[in-house]
Amino acid sequence: MKRILMILFMVALPTWCVAEEVVRYQLPDWKAKHVHDASKAETIVKTLTKLGCEVKKAQHSGHIDVRYRCPQWRQLRLDSHAQAHQWEKWLKEFSFVTIHKH
Q1: What residues does each domain of the chain span?
Q2: pLDDT at residue number 51
Q3: How far is 63 from 98, CA to CA, in rounded Å?
Q4: Which residues on adjacent β-strands are paired with residue 63?
Q5: CA 48 from chain center: how many Å?
Q6: CB count in 10 Å sphere of residue 82
Q7: Paired strand residues for 67
Q8: CA distances from 4 to 21, 29, 49, 101 (A)
Q9: Whole-number pLDDT of residue 61
Q10: Phi, psi of 16, rounded to the nearest 5 degrees
């Protein structure tokens, strides 16, 4: 849960911050996460939405399906190399293609 909150905090950083690290990301095809915790599912939906992804949520059979895609290339500007690697790892866990530029 702390990791998800950290991710939300990083997404909410002001866009006027000076950023030296850039992580580009794309996910042209729909992917899905099966989540059993409603709060966690909502956090994932909010994070993916803030990242500019298309997101659909459906509940059935005791879990929540979070479906998402991001057909256009997007980018995150981050203040540190460590933050860039954290985001790159998270995006890859969600099947995104990433490019990390310094």
Answers
A1: 2-7+19-101
A2: 97
A3: 28
A4: 60
A5: 5
A6: 10
A7: 32, 56
A8: 21, 23, 14, 23
A9: 85
A10: -85, 0
